[in-house]
Specification:
The chain is an alpha/beta fold. The chain has a domain of about 130 residues: Rossmann fold. Helix content is about 35%, strand content about 15%. It contains eight helices and nine strands. A seven-stranded mixed beta sheet has the order 1-4-9-8-5-6-7, sandwiched between helices. Strands 2-3 form a two-stranded antiparallel sheet. Strand 2 and strand 3 form a beta hairpin. Helix 6 runs parallel beside helix 7.
């Protein structure tokens, strides 16, 4: 879904490049954010170009959707390009309510892309280790590499993002839904990353489709 008036041209380009992909277009002149949140109920993910769009009372589209969407939200920064198929999926690892969803999504995507997962974490061991072993065991073909942070989390993850196909982060619910990202590293990484950033927000349902299901949907 594209938020600009040239939606028809963009849709035609996508159909031309991916002829086997089913593409649907919709115009939303008002309350675009509400429409995207509604669509998220049955979506695998929402991808939004990071162009500083504003939808919810002054908040950026990424911040608002990450807080409210029922599926992962992908922020695609200007100039992002798929240049290295072997680039790993970068995962910010910490103990949180979103850890399972974040790891499941990351390993499923790495497996689908035929690449590895690079875990960026605060310590060599932590509360998420058992969960990590559980999820990793389901994807034996996904190589795993861990990096222990030596700098502030936001800076470290943003730096590793330069070498990855995407970055996957979780965000915690704060005192209010709209402030869900304020106390997480997600906002800072979104501001500086040069590769797509996937945010598993506080409203995201547990969502880990089989890779074969995704491939069938795209074939």
């Amino acid at each position: 879904m594209h938020l600009q008036p040239d939606i028809t041209a963009v849709t035609d380009q996508v159909r031309s490049r991916f002829p086997d992909l089913a593409v649907r277009q919709r115009y939303a002149r008002d309350r675009v954010g509400d429409l995207l949140v509604a669509e998220s109920e049955h979506a695998h993910l929402i991808a939004v170009a990071d162009e500083g769009a504003v939808v919810f009372e002054g908040e950026s589209v990424i911040t608002a959707l990450s807080a409210l969407a029922r599926c992962p939200v992908v922020s695609v920064p200007p100039g992002a390009a798929w240049t290295d198929p072997a680039a790993p999926v970068i995962v910010g690892v910490h103990a949180s309510a979103r850890s399972r969803e974040k790891l499941e999504f990351s390993f499923a995507e790495a497996d689908r892309l035929g690449t590895g997962a690079r875990l960026v974490r605060c310590a060599s061991r932590g509360p998420a280790d058992d969960l990590l072993r559980e999820v990793s065991a389901r994807y034996p073909d996904v190589p795993v590499h861990s990096e222990v942070l030596g700098t502030p989390a936001a800076s470290a993850v943003a730096w590793h993002a330069h070498f990855g196909s995407m970055v996957v982060l979780g965000s915690r619910r704060g005192g209010a839904v709209r402030g869900a990202l304020v106390r997480s590293i997600s906002r800072a990484v979104l501001r500086h990353a040069s590769s797509p950033v996937v945010v598993i927000g506080p409203s995201c349902r547990r969502f880990s489709p089989a890779v074969s299901d995704l491939d069938n949907a795209r074939s």
